[in-house]
Amino acid sequence: MVYLKNNSEIALMREAGKIAGNALAYGGSLVKEGVSTLTIDAKIRSFITGHGAKPSFLNYNGFPNSACISINEQVIHGIPSDRILKEGDIVKIDVGAFYKGFHGDTAATFAVGSISDEAKHLIETTRRSFFEAVKMARADNRLNDVSKTVESVATSEGYSVVTEFIGHGVGHNLHENPDVPNYDMGRRGIKLIPGMTFAIEPMVNTGTMDIRCLDNKWTIITLDGKLSAHYEHTIAITEGEPIILTEPDEGCL
Fold it and tell me: At what angle do helices 143-156 and 117-134 cross, to 10 degrees?
């Protein structure tokens, strides 16, 4: 069942989403050569709690940190550590904030200094696949209109999309219905209705879509060791244009 939110609940989700979005923007500003991912995680946690919210990811199914921070071939669910960022790395930060009974969930990929043209194009394409998909997130369209758009943008540039992990509904729970794949499901999917709130989160690889999980049971990496990028916002379906609920104060990342 998909839980539809009323206008008051969507307003509360926007509050949670703004904290998450601003925390992500803050975390992204810390991505520099010589900084550890554990330091970034600690500062994101302080930012979220300092705004009266709780980190959605901390202890979620046993996850030990407040943000997922994944580097280069790491796709998602990277565990912050003493690893030091170096010039040329690309860093995916995924942040959630729980506030007034609702979650906001958002992610983006950041560059450490000067990165390769390949990495720049991957990041730009992943971001573009999200925004093209959002254009399809309108009432009376179908969920697959969103899903297949992500895949179409990514594959048009010669990239692949991860299929084993997908977007999801967001609300009182961090993960709710509906599932939001990043690929053509081969069927229309459910009709989009005002009040639906979900995260669209493309995970795009330069090489194969195949992935594997590290021994830590969390971190997902590309099977071929090639780069991966991630981009995510929580959105709400309305009678008109969709609303990005996790947009930070300074505008979309």
Answer: 160
Please identify which residue in the block is written with the tokens 């565990």: 79
CA 47, chain centre distance (Å): 18
Domain residues for the domain of 159 are 7-244
State how far the Cα of 68 lies from the Cα of 110, in Å rounded to an integer. Answer: 13
Question: Cα dist. 55→43, 50, 60, 74, 252 in Å?
Answer: 12, 11, 9, 21, 21
In a domain, 186, yes or no: yes
- Distance between CA atoms of residues 240 and 225, nearest Å: 42
The number of distinct structural domains making up the chain is 1
- Is 122 domain-assigned? yes
Find how far residue 179's CA is from the centre of its chain: 14
Contacts of 200 (CB under 8 A, 6+ apart): 130, 133, 134, 137, 146, 150, 167, 180, 182, 232, 233, 235
- What tens digit of pLDDT does each residue of 186-231 get? 998 999 999 999 999 999 999 999 999 999 999 999 999 999 999 9
Read off the tokens for 157: 């540039």
Domain for residue 249, yes or no?
no
Q: According to DSSP H, which parts of 30-142 are helical?
A: 37-50, 117-134
Work out the pLDDT band at 102, boundaries 50, 70, 90: very high
